[in-house]
Amino acid sequence: MRKRMTLSPTELEVLQHIARGLENREIATKTFRSIETIRTHVKNILYKLKAANRAHAVAIAYHVGIFQGLPRTEEQATSPLTPPEPNLTVQIPPGHPAAETIPPNDPPARQRTATSDGPRPRIQR
Asked: What predicted TM-score, i.e. pTM, was given to this entire model?
């Protein structure tokens, strides 16, 4: 099996930005390089990792362990693959009709519809 070529420090930096979902223009702004330079680095990354596209390059980098052991900055505190925790709390303002009709932590009762005459007949399969 052929060994993959090693990435330069600049290519590693660009690959980290790609993993966070940044576009070439955004990477160029953050790294103070031109967009054409970033495009060249991306082409070199794809060639060296034998990747079909940017997402494939990131997947290879995680699979091979390229990102392990690299210093993490404050911006990289969370993994680019881990979505942020959703805020699932619902606040009902006082005086809203829903605040008075639903007691807290009490599941709603099942109501029968006007068309139901009793239990449904079971269908045997």
From this structure: 0.56
